[in-house]
């Protein structure tokens, strides 16, 4: 098994998950344009943060460091689940013993590419047709006890977002090293396979517990999957990310079938989950998935099945 790929849709209530630049008294929503129409999106950086915090809140004795005032993390992929799964760019002092440098690091910058790849969350419904400008008040206590208030305008909207992650299984728990004799690249692992599997399971579990989005003190919403596809792949690929495309208020069945058939060529297991009432052609989507031998469960059951299946596999 080379990777685990996940793509999902999430329907939100009125919210602002990831603010743009805005102005002093205006908080906007990040947007992209397609054919001249604006759609909202949530940056990949924000999505990574949501996953990190979901994992941090559900640790079972594992260590996960906190970045310092420069945003740098510990860089110890052997002991730190966060640095292992999400990579880092940090400065290492000369002589520091870290995995891969048993006699001490020579000092300087040290970078690890994240084994967990996260896509931006792309809104699929036009922004203008599904948004409103709300306002909130900020009150300040003056020196003499007087109160002063500011009015801040906030863009909020409902939408259907497409999100995705890929877990590069081979890279979890290890780092690429150059074999000087053969001039080839090999992965040196610093933790055992049981620890690697537990760390990967933490990422899958995080799909059920995503939280800590921006503005949630006033805009409580849920951003966990409502429609999900999970593929266990023998080839590293991002192909599954193209499975979901809206057409006439529902999912494009031809696109869904074509992409899944492609992915099934190198995926011994694909799991689907659907929460009722999210898309208009829900029954047709279920029928199509069953037709191409992908069983459909609810989203929570799909994630649980993925965890159970992965626990039986050899790395």
Which SSEs are present, and which pair or pack?
Layout: E1 3-15, E2 26-27, E3 31-34, E4 37-42, H1 44-56, H2 81-86, E5 88-92, E6 108-112, E7 116-118, E8 121-123, E9 131-141, E10 147-168, E11 174-179, E12 184-189, H3 193-206, E13 227-233, E14 246-247, E15 250-251, H4 253-264, E16 269-274, H5 282-291, E17 296-297, H6 299-311
Parallel strand pairs: 2-10, 16-17
Antiparallel strand pairs: 1-10, 1-13, 3-4, 4-8, 5-6, 7-10, 8-10, 9-10, 11-12, 13-16, 14-15
Helix pairs in contact: 1-3, 3-6
Mean pLDDT: 91
In whole angstroms, the N-to-C terminal distance is: 7 Å
What Rg, in angstroms, do the CA atoms define? Answer: 22 Å
Give the overall shape, derived from the CA principal axes: flat
Which structural class do the helices and strands define? alpha+beta
- DSSP E strands, number: 17
Q: What proportion of the residues is helical, as a percent range?
A: 10-25%
Strand portion:
25-35%
Q: How many structural domains can be distinguished in the coordinates?
A: 1
* Parts with pLDDT < 50 across at least 5 consecutive residues: none
Question: Largest beta sheet, briefly?
Answer: 11 strands, mixed
Order of helices and strands: EEEEHHEEEEEEEEHEEEHEHEH
């Amino acid at each position: 098994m080379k990777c685990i790929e996940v793509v999902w849709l999430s329907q939100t209530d009125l919210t602002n998950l990831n603010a743009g630049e805005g102005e002093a008294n205006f908080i906007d929503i990040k947007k992209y344009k397609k054919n001249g129409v604006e759609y909202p999106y949530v940056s990949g950086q924000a999505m990574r943060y949501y996953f990190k915090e979901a994992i941090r809140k559900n640790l079972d004795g594992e260590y996960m460091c906190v970045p310092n005032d420069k945003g740098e993390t510990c860089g110890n992929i052997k002991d730190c689940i966060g640095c292992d799964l999400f990579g880092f760019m940090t400065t290492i002092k000369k002589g520091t013993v870290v995995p891969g440098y048993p006699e001490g690091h020579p000092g300087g910058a040290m970078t690890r590419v994240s084994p967990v790849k996260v896509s931006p969350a792309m809104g699929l419904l036009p922004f203008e047709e599904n948004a409103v400008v709300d306002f909130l008040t900020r009150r300040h206590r003056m020196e003499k006890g007087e109160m002063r208030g500011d009015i801040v305008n906030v863009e909020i909207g409902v939408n259907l977002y497409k999100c995705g992650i890929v877990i590069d299984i081979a890279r979890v728990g290890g780092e690429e090293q150059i074999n000087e004799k053969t001039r080839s690249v090999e992965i040196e692992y610093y933790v055992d396979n049981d620890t690697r599997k537990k760390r990967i399971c933490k990422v899958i579990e995080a799909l059920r517990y995503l939280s800590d989005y921006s503005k949630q003190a006033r805009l409580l919403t849920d951003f966990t999957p409502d429609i999900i596809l999970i593929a266990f792949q023998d080839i590293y690929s991002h192909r599954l990310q193209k499975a979901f495309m809206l057409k006439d208020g529902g999912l494009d069945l031809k696109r869904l079938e074509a992409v899944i058939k492609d992915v099934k060529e190198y995926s011994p297991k694909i799991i689907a989950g659907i929460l009722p009432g999210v898309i208009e052609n829900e029954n047709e989507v279920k029928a199509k998935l069953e037709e191409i031998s992908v069983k459909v469960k609810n989203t929570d059951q799909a994630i649980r099945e993925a965890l159970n299946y992965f626990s039986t596999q050899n790395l």
